[in-house]
């Protein structure tokens, strides 16, 4: 398998496409229209150029990655010939199911279909297809080109062959995998949402400033990023959707902090809008 399709060219979709392209895969990037794809192409090229100029990529890898990337708005053309299709859209179950139904219709029966979800059920998604044994969750982390981990979550019907295929693919990308039994939020999202939500409660209650909360976690508990910095990077709207899903499925301890809800209503979504718990130029 040397061709991969990424459906969705947001922050995660672009990062996943970049990671596959520098690993030698032919990568098709799909989204709703040409304008969105043009923006994605510009962003991925900027990342490639920066990585090459800073010496993180050898010239042959850099040139190969640029040649390996194809941007295609028509879904059928984008998935044709791909052994793996990864959905990387918003954390909305109805949207994901709609995409997987379409993929199931147009992809050959041997194609593996993966969702880059951080919380949702690959069993529920796979049930909507004729190939639940080939549906799996492949959870990447932001920024994809720096983060080594991929959570691999098997659905109830996901086959051992499919799981091995994903482990092998991740190894070729120089990523490390952990295998997780399906449960809402898996491992990382459950822990991360709890820590982040408590940091937001601390800020709301006036216990400490955002900077001091983050520094306490980085310098006192050796976290590489503070929980409020990380929430801004992920996007506060994304974090709120995750919290709402976990609150619905796992109960009271995941009730979203009122400050998070307020910031999302105000359009303070983090780095992508220029303001969140911090201000960005």
From TrEMBL:
<protein>
    <submittedName>
        <fullName>3-hydroxyacyl-CoA dehydrogenase NAD-binding domain-containing protein</fullName>
    </submittedName>
</protein>
<dbReference type="Pfam" id="PF00725">
    <property type="entry name" value="3HCDH"/>
</dbReference>
<dbReference type="InterPro" id="IPR008927">
    <property type="entry name" value="6-PGluconate_DH-like_C_sf"/>
</dbReference>
<comment type="similarity">
    <text>Belongs to the 3-hydroxyacyl-CoA dehydrogenase family.</text>
</comment>
<dbReference type="InterPro" id="IPR036291">
    <property type="entry name" value="NAD(P)-bd_dom_sf"/>
</dbReference>
<dbReference type="InterPro" id="IPR022694">
    <property type="entry name" value="3-OHacyl-CoA_DH"/>
</dbReference>
<feature type="domain" description="3-hydroxyacyl-CoA dehydrogenase NAD binding">
    <location>
        <begin position="4"/>
        <end position="182"/>
    </location>
</feature>
<keyword id="KW-0560">Oxidoreductase</keyword>
<feature type="domain" description="3-hydroxyacyl-CoA dehydrogenase C-terminal">
    <location>
        <begin position="185"/>
        <end position="280"/>
    </location>
</feature>
<dbReference type="InterPro" id="IPR006108">
    <property type="entry name" value="3HC_DH_C"/>
</dbReference>
<dbReference type="InterPro" id="IPR013328">
    <property type="entry name" value="6PGD_dom2"/>
</dbReference>
<comment type="pathway">
    <text>Lipid metabolism; butanoate metabolism.</text>
</comment>
<dbReference type="InterPro" id="IPR006176">
    <property type="entry name" value="3-OHacyl-CoA_DH_NAD-bd"/>
</dbReference>
<dbReference type="Pfam" id="PF02737">
    <property type="entry name" value="3HCDH_N"/>
</dbReference>
